[in-house]
Write a structure and sequence with these properties.
Blueprint: H1 7-11, E1 19-25, H2 32-40, E2 46-52, H3 54-61, E3 65-73, H4 82-90, E4 94-97, H5 100-111, E5 117-119, H6 126-131, E6 136-139, E7 147-151, E8 156-167, E9 172-173, H7 182-188, E10 189-200, E11 222-225, H8 251-261, H9 266-275, H10 280-286, H11 290-294
Length: 301
């Protein structure tokens, strides 16, 4: 089954009011081409789940998201995403800030189709009193009688992720040093869509390479090949250039984005400068072209 789609076709599958998990974290490996396509759409009232970065900031600024569920929203070398900050300070968006581990636990519960997962972590903290009031406690049914936190599932309608390579059947390869939560998001979602740097007819089943397969192909509903599609976030490769296209985040672009955010009409200024061209090709041309993106140097932390 050929699962190849365009970014526009993927976003056409989304509906108002959906809960959407966005993979990557901070300024790393965000499916930004799909985020930009959502910005061009008429979608609204979305709940966005993730370890956030510019995805959450942009969707908040554009009025696409009405609620965020997040462990953090950061640009890493710039601690707090500026448009997210403005939206939260203005009270224009609802938010649930979840401890990083508890959020992983909630995604895992959804991935396993469980009503909750127990943990001793988070008891007697603001997670239960303020941040995530839906959290409840349970008592262990065994002799220890321990009180535990029952973390509910964070169920997703759709997961959106970015990977290094895919085939048209839905097999994906993620060579990143930090795959972390992308797999859980796909498993927690009813449907999952992928953007990739390279698309082939069928990925070879090399034993070593297969270790980088994120999930079973039946979990993937559609794939769009968009080289540079994570820009301005990074698409790092654990083995440098050994596995094709990889690049660092665009620090200059992100700094400019933050400078615009400091202005009252900052979001409109950013849209006018970078998002007014109508499609991903126009955006990439405005930031120097695909070749410039995929040759951005990787950050050394």
């Amino acid at each position: 089954m050929n699962k190849e789609l365009s970014a526009k076709q993927i976003v056409a599958q989304l509906r108002d009011g959906m809960t959407i998990g966005i993979g990557g974290w901070g300024p790393r490996r965000k499916p930004m081409a799909l985020v930009r396509e959502i910005l061009r759409s008429d979608l609204k009232d979305l709940t966005i789940v993730g370890y956030g970065g510019m995805d959450m900031g942009m969707l908040s600024a554009a009025g696409k998201a009405s609620k965020l569920i997040y462990a953090f929203v950061t640009l890493d070398f710039i601690p707090l995403e500026p448009f997210f900050r403005k939206a939260r300070e203005a009270g224009t968006i609802n938010g649930i800030e979840v401890d990083e581990g508890l959020m992983q636990w909630g995604l895992r519960a959804a991935a396993m189709r469980l009503p909750f997962l127990p943990t001793p972590v988070g008891l007697a903290t603001d997670q239960t009193a303020k941040a995530w009031p839906e959290l409840k406690t349970i008592t262990s049914p065994y002799a220890d009688g321990e009180t535990l936190l029952a973390v509910p599932p964070i169920k997703l309608d759709v997961a959106l992720i970015h990977v290094h390579k895919s085939d048209r059947l839905g097999n994906v390869r993620l060579y990143a040093p930090d795959p972390f939560f992308d797999e859980l998001m796909v498993r927690a979602a009813d449907k999952a869509y992928v953007t990739c740097e390279e698309l082939v007819d069928q990925i070879a089943s090399d034993e070593v390479d297969a270790h980088f397969n994120l999930v079973e192909r039946n979990r993937i509903n559609g794939v769009a090949c968009i080289p540079g599609g994570a820009h301005p976030t990074s698409n790092a490769d654990i083995y440098g250039k050994d596995h094709g296209i990889n690049y660092g985040w665009d620090a200059a672009h992100i700094k400019h984005y933050c400078e615009l955010a400091a202005q009252d009409n900052g979001w409109q200024l950013y849209v006018d400068e970078f998002l007014s061209g109508g499609d991903e090709a126009a955006y990439q041309a405005k930031v120097g072209g695909t070749d410039a993106i995929v040759n951005l140097p990787r950050q050394v932390m």
